[in-house]
Amino acid sequence: MILATERRARGGGSAGLGAPPSGVVDLWRLRLDLPDPRRAGLREWLDDSELERAARYRRRLDAHRFVAGRGQLRRVLGGYLGLDPARVTFVTGLHGKPSLAGPAARRLDFNLAHSDGWALLAVTAGVAVGVDVEVPRAGFGGMDIAERFFGAGELRQLRALPAAQQEAAFLRCWTRKEAYLKAHGAGLSMPLDSFEVSVAPTPSPRLRWSRDATARRRWSLLDVSDPAAGYLAALAVPEPRVAVRERRPEEGLERA
Ligand SMILES: CC(C)(COP(=O)(O)OP(=O)(O)OC[C@H]1O[C@@H](n2cnc3c(N)ncnc32)[C@H](O)[C@@H]1OP(=O)(O)O)[C@@H](O)C(=O)NCCC(=O)NCCS
After folding, report:
1. Average pLDDT over residues 42-54
2. pLDDT digits (tens, 9 = 90+) for 51-86
3. Where does ligand 1 bind, in terms of residues with CB under 6 Å?
4. For the chain, domain boundaries
5. How far is the CA of 192 from the centre of ligand 1 (A)?
6. Which protein residue's CA is at the shortest distance from atom 21 of ligand 1?
7. Angle of the 48-56 helix axis to the 60-81 helix axis, nearest 10
8. 251: exposed, middle or buried (C-beta count within 10 Å: 0-12, 13-18, 19+)?
9. Taking the CA of residue 164 as centre, how many other CA atoms within 13 Å lie in the half-sphere pointing to its CB?
10. Residue 186 C-alpha to ligand 1 middle, in angstroms?
């Protein structure tokens, strides 16, 4: 079943979404656990490669969440571009970062992250963006990972905290580092100890140090965690001053 709203978007998408102005990141906090009829509507926009990928997930829940994420990604991007969501096309960078194909790539950049039942989608115009989200899991063993891969300064910040606070602090650090990596699109080709971020709980974390000597002046990190929803999250943008514009899933699009 296709919802009426999704059918309307099929007729050319919505003209309702203005591209984010310079220095602004549009942030979409999307739920991935959707009722079957909604997910079925979103699924209709996926292309063959996305449907093949959905079919490869072993757990049905993971397949459902992938479909919900990709469908909503297409819907939002189609809303900005004035395109039917099924006609949004992607290319994949050297290390796997998806971006828009063709002339649309000059208008918008985006990055998607998901964890459990949440996806965060960040959209910018004319500048790269990276986002990460993590729902804490019991027994994750974050400090072991930090000892092996994080920078010495980050490790010092983490070890200075009481043990009971270390796991949450590790995840804050992780999401900030991952957002930075994802903005570069470099994946794991960029060593995790080639830059360091601040660990303290603040909306405006800092890039404390980088092998790239100019990066500290240029980059902004933002903590966009939602404690009520139960996740930690961060954004990274290569601009010295950046504001976040929270977007609601229905805003500027046909109502879902
Ligand atoms: C793939 C990677 C980008 C992140 O993977 P992840 O944390 O498992 O997943 P996220 O939910 O944050 O992001 C996945 C999405 O990012 C996008 N993505 C994929 N490769 C990307 C890349 N190289 N750069 C930016 N974004 C990428 C895709 O949209 C993907 O969504 P999809 O799976 O629906 O296609 C990559 O950085 C990686 O493998 N990281 C491993 C984890 C790690 O060591 N992190 C260190 C943090 S300190």
Report:
1. 98
2. 999 999 999 999 999 999 999 999 999 999 999 999
3. 69, 95-98, 111-114, 132, 174, 177-178, 181-182, 185, 187-188, 192
4. 4-247
5. 14
6. 97
7. 160
8. middle
9. 0
10. 10
Give me ligand 1 centre to Cα 179, in Å: 9
Provide, rounded to the nearest whole percent, the portion of the chain with pLDDT above 70: 92
Q: Could you give the CA distance from residue 72 to residue 88 in angstroms, rounded to a whole number?
A: 12
**What residue's CA is closest to ligand 1, atom 34?**
66
Looking from the CA of residue 95, the nearest atom of ligand 1 is 23
Position 251 pLDDT exceeds 80:
no
pLDDT one-digit tens code per residue, 152-192: 999 999 999 999 999 999 999 999 999 999 999 988 889 99
Structure tokens that stand for 210 in this block: 């980088």
Q: Which of 50, 56, 90, 112 to mutate to test the pocket of ligand 1 (most atoms within 8 A of CB)?
A: 112
pLDDT of residue 165: 93
Contact (Cβ atoms closer than 8 angstroms) between residue 43 and residue 55: no
Q: What's the pLDDT score for residue 6?
A: 39
pTM of this prediction?
0.92
Q: Does domain 4-247 have CATH number 3.90.470.20?
A: yes
Residue nearest to atom 39 of ligand 1 (CA): 187
b vs e for 78-96, b when ≥16 Cβ sit within 10 Å of the residue's Cβ? bbbbebbbbebebeeeeee
